[in-house]
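Quick one:
INPUT:
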């Protein structure tokens, strides 16, 4: 009875001090104080902004974008090989003077075809002439020397049309190039999604670090309040020096916890800035105190696995690459057959070598024809190329199978992470309620001299741990949702939205 009266006396004496200490921190429990610390502002930074910032300038996305440009260039190069080959050339040249001299004498020629005869000359005079079949005298003309022009001017135009390629190779080449380009775009989409989800996870880790710091600071404030209680109790004789030292040790540990939490927050902030490629102000802009969406609303586990395996950008890119290889085989097989090309060539030159004798005149000549060719080395090379393409297709199929297994593991991991966080939330809620009640009771008992500092320390630690587990589980749910949206190829715009 005497001890009870003494305890009631000290409780009444210390009650104003206790109330003032609570009002100095917060009128609510530790969890409420943490969420109050994490109150968002309208212009603050959100996980969606982090994802958007990362997708705009992440190095992996920049690299993937460059690969898309390479694929586009290769598509154009492939199609350009099947455009009719048009060549236009102009030239001017000068050569040394060349003269042609046919020697002495004259050339004899008849005007009309047929046998030659001897008869009277048409001019009369009684002389005889050698006559052609029509009675025209045969004439002798002296050969005159001539020289070829020294200056040559020419304009040449040629057209070559690969007829066999149009029939056998053009369609597979076009479809294969388009499939490769689409695969590159899908790989870029995969990098965008990866950069976005990594930025979201970095954001949630940054929020987690702030929550940890808030809990550490609240624990430090509570520990310092207990040290003040111990000082008063020590003077009054209700608290032993050992208990006072125990609480001083708790306060020192709490200070160390604050320092560690501050270090973790700085590291988490730098990680967020680097991952999101963001250098603006970091102020919380997302409300994480509300309950996030339920994982079961996204579908069953098996449905999510199948959706991810079918719709993941990486899976679709591999399928497109396999299609491109199939078209590549069809296009390469065209080289096993003889090649047929049509050609046209027009020459406008002064002098034109097609005309004789050469003269300083502009003349036009042309040639039209078909060219059928087949090469043994091309045939053998095509056989090896087809074999290589088929082997690459087998590699793609093996990669697809491996990717499907990896996607299943990702989906299952995100699913289990959500289940674990949900269970932790429920258990931690009960644990936290009990820890808060126990903390309040032990503080009152300690202030009344009915409890030791060991009990107070234990209550402080249990309350801090229970609070962190509950807040941490809430953040873990959002991380699990972000991972699931990435793993199962779901719409990322609804991450964290309650349905």
């Amino acid at each position: 009875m005497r001890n009870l009266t003494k305890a009631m006396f000290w409780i009444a004496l210390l009650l104003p001090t206790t109330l003032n200490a609570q009002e100095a921190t917060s009128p609510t429990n530790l969890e409420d104080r943490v969420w109050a610390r994490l109150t968002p502002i309208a212009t603050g930074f959100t996980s969606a902004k982090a994802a958007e910032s990362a997708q705009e300038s992440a190095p992996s996305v920049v690299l993937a974008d460059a690969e898309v440009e390479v694929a586009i260039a290769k598509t154009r190069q492939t199609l350009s090989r099947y455009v009719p080959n048009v060549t236009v050339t102009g030239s001017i040249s000068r050569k040394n003077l060349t003269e042609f001299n046919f020697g002495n004498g004259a050339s004899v020629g008849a005007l009309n075809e047929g046998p030659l005869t001897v008869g009277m000359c048409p001019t009369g005079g009684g002389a005889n002439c050698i006559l052609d079949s029509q009675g025209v005298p045969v004439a002798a003309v002296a050969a005159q020397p001539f020289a070829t022009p020294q200056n040559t001017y020419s304009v040449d135009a040629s057209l070559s049309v690969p007829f066999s390629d149009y029939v056998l190779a053009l369609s597979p080449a076009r479809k294969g190039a388009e499939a490769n380009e689409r695969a590159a775009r899908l790989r870029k989409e995969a990098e965008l999604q990866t950069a976005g989800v990594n930025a979201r996870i970095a954001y949630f880790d940054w929020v987690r670090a702030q929550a940890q710091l808030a809990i550490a600071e609240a624990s430090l404030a509570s520990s310092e309040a207990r040290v003040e209680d111990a000082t008063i109790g020590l003077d009054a004789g209700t608290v032993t020096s050992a208990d006072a030292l125990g609480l001083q040790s708790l306060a020192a540990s709490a200070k160390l916890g604050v320092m560690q939490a501050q270090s973790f927050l700085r590291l988490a902030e730098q990680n967020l800035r680097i991952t999101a490629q963001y250098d603006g102000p970091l102020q919380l802009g997302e409300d994480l105190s509300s309950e996030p969406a339920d994982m079961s609303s996204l579908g069953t586990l098996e449905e999510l696995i199948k959706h991810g395996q079918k719709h993941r950008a990486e899976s679709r890119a591999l399928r497109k690459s396999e299609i491109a290889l199939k078209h590549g085989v069809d296009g390469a097989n065209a080289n096993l057959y003889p090649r047929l090309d049509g050609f046209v060539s027009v020459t406008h030159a002064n002098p034109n070598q097609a005309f004789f004798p050469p003269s300083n005149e502009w003349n036009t000549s042309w040639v039209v024809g078909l060219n059928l060719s087949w090469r043994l080395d091309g045939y053998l090379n095509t056989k090896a190329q087809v074999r290589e393409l088929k082997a690459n297709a087998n590699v793609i199929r093996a990669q697809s199978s491996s990717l499907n297994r990896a996607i299943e593991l990702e989906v299952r991991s995100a699913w289990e992470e959500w289940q674990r966080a949900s269970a932790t939330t429920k258990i931690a809620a009960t644990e936290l309620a009990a820890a808060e009640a126990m903390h309040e009771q032990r503080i009152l008992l300690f202030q009344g001299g009915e409890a030791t500092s060991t009990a107070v320390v234990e209550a402080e630690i249990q309350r801090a741990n229970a609070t962190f587990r509950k807040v941490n589980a809430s953040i873990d749910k959002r991380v699990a949702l972000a991972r699931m949206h990435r793993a199962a190829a779901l719409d990322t715009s609804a991450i964290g939205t309650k349905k």
